[in-house]
Structure formats: structure tokens, C-alpha cells
Amino acid sequence: MPFIIAALSIVHLIFLHQTGSNNPLGLNSNKDKIPFHPFFSIKDLLGIIIIIFALVTITLIDPFILGDVENFIPANPLVTPVHIQPEWYFLFAYAILRSIPNKLGGVIALVISIAILLIIPIINFPKIRGNQFYPFNQILLWALLNIVMLLT
Predict the structure, then answer these.
(1) CA dist 58 → 67, 83, 95 (Å)
(2) What residue spans of 63-102 are helical by DSSP H?
(3) Reported confidence tier of residue 26, pLDDT bands at 50, 70, 90
(4) For labelling alongside 70, which of 31, 32, 106, 144 has CA 20 to 30 A away?
């Protein structure tokens, strides 16, 4: 997205240099225009220099002023920090791994929970295609959704 915005800004500047800006009345206003290069280029260059100066000053005087306090806590490889959590779409897998104390058992449960979703379409060959004829499947579907939401 930033590259698209930058490209559109460059295209806008190109068209602005070629055709000039327009006013709502459609009148020719060439006599009110000032040239782009010396005025706006110097103004933009001054703004960029001020921003770079501010960033260099922050970096050289106090580089940790914008940092997080938790970066200075000594690492403990045996304990996962509380603030580290996966994205919302991995929370069910994270809950499965945390709920089983055995590491191998947690990994097996996680693989089975994903393998079920891959195996069920292969082994299901119903003669009637509508789900309204299978109330037990509807119960299983809502149970699955409830379990995923509870784990998340």
C-alpha cells in the first residue's frame, strides 16, 4: 500500500507539472502561479532536514526512549512471557498445546485436530446432499464451532 501511494503521488506531481493546477471556475490563472522548483523544493528539503535532524538527535542522545520496557527483562528460556500470544486464528492451536502437559501429546492432538478437517470430506459419501436431513451433523457442526470459540 505505501508503494501504491508513493507511485500515485509521483503520477500526481507529473500531471501537476505538465498541465498545472485548475480552479473550480475554470478560468485561466497562470498569472497567479509561482514556479514549483525554487519555492516548494526548498520548503520540502527544509522539512526533510528538520525531520532527519530530530531522528538523529533522538538516536544519539537517548536511543531507548521509544523502546519497550519489557526488552530489558532478562530472558528465561523455560517460561513463555505472558504478553506473547499468537494471532486470533492460531489461538485454538495454542490452547490445545497449552492444555496438554506432555509436549508430544500436545503436538499429536494438534495434528489430529487439523487432520480431522482434512479426512472428513474424503470419508463422507452421502446419498442425500442436503444438511437438513442430517441433524446429527448439524449438532456436530455447532459443537465444533463452540469448541473453537471457547478455545479461542
Answers:
(1) 12, 27, 41
(2) 91-99
(3) low
(4) 106
